[in-house]
């Protein structure tokens, strides 16, 4: 871009302001914020927008000119968010809006038709001996947890509140793996996870074997007994007598 063409594009401030005034009204144009060259034939001028509900937004006016032109022309006038503009939250598709913890009593939540967490199970054979064993290992259900579903759950539990990276786990050297309250899960997930059976800890929650808390079954009792600052008071060593009025 020649110096003359660049000067023409960057100098079209009044033309840009007039374009906004024609488009939206003169009272909607605020302070001039500067300009920048976009390509060899165009530049963008920015103005502060003075519109109700658009605090922090800017007017952007693109001006264009070709080599040999005598003046710049208006190419585009748009309203764009500035660095401090208030924006709507990012759009989340309807099918992705349900989050963990949203399900309440009475709510129904069907899995997607192609849910990769589930794979088809096996129907019963009619033979009681076979079917009883099949139910124990998960067969007989229409769908069972897939390998991907197990891995996804394992990662979520490992990274969650009852995983080794939580604040509670980091505050102790003891782990659930050797705790008497740790009830391992069955199957492949039992290698890493179990359920806590301590009502004063993570009772009923799936915990990582490397998770830990201060209520470990091997936690030693505190040393000493009674108050460390005062001797215990024993009223059994006192003689209680009834007070009588002195006679004068």
Write the layout of secondary structure elements.
Blueprint: H1 3-10, H2 13-24, E1 29-39, E2 42-49, E3 57-64, E4 73-81, E5 118-120, H3 128-136, E6 143-145, H4 147-159, H5 167-170, E7 182-184, E8 193-196, E9 206-208
Antiparallel strand pairs: 1-2, 2-3, 3-4, 5-6, 7-8, 8-9
Please tag this protein with its features.
single chain; 248 residues; alpha+beta; 3-stranded antiparallel β-sheet; 19% helix; 21% strand; elongated
Question: What can you tell me about this protein's structure?
Answer:
This protein has 248 residues and is an alpha+beta fold. It contains five helices and nine strands. The chain has helices spanning 3-10, 13-24, 128-136, 147-159, 167-170, and strands spanning 29-39, 42-49, 57-64, 73-81, 118-120, 143-145, 182-184, 193-196, 206-208. The strands form three sheets. It has a four-stranded antiparallel beta sheet with strand order 1-2-3-4. A three-stranded antiparallel beta sheet has the order 7-8-9. It has a two-stranded antiparallel ribbon with strand order 5-6. It is elongated and about 110 Å long. This is DUF3027 domain-containing protein. InterPro entries: DUF3027 (IPR021391). It holds the Pfam family DUF3027.
